[in-house]
Write a structure and sequence with these properties.
Blueprint lengths: L4 H5 L1 H16 L2 H17 L1 H8 L5 H15 L3 H12 L6 H15 L3 E7 L5 H15 L3 E7 L7 E5 L2 E4 L2 H13 L1
Parallel strand pairs: 1-2
Antiparallel strand pairs: 1-3, 3-4
Helix pairs in contact: 2-3, 2-7, 3-7, 5-6
Amino acid sequence: MEISGSIQASLGGRYALALFEVAQEKGQIDTVAASLGKFDEAFAQARELRLLANNQIFSRKHVEKAIAALVPVLAIDDLTAKFLNLLAAKGRLGAFPEIASAYRQYVADLRSEKVADVITAHPLSDEQKSTLTARLKEQLKADVQINATVDPSILGGMIVRLGSRQIDGSIRSKLHMLAQAMKG
C-alpha cells in the first residue's frame, strides 16, 4: 500500500497511521473504521463534545471520563476506545476529525478506492449517500467512499472534494458569486 506523504506528515496523519497499522495487525480495520465513523458523527453533531475536546479549561482526566462514558453508548470497539483515551490523555482529541479523515484515506488506499469529502448543511440520509456514491462511482469508474460532514454555514447544497478537485454547489457559494456579480 502506498501511503500519501502529505497525510503521513500531518499530526492527524501520524496518529491515523499508527491506529491503522495496529488495526491492520489485529485484523480490525473495518471494526475500527466503523467505530471512528460513529465517534466522528457524534463529534460533528454534539457541539458540547467539540468544545470539550478543544477546551483547555477541562482537565485531561475530565475529558477521559467523558470519552469513557461515550464509548458504551456509541458501541465503540476496544481498540478505538483505547485510541480515543490516548488522544484525550495527550490533549489531542481536538484533532479527531483530521485523524478520522486520514484513517479513512488509509483504508481507501488499501482498497484502491477514491475518497470523496462531502460537506452539506444537513446530514445526508442513507439513501442520499447511496445515490451520491453510485453517481460518483459511475463518473470516476472506481469504488468511492463518502466522508460526509455537516457545515450549516454553507446554507444548502453540497461541496464535494475528490483529491485536489472541488465541486462547490453550496448556496453560500452561489450567493457569494451573485453578490460579486452585483458589485460589478
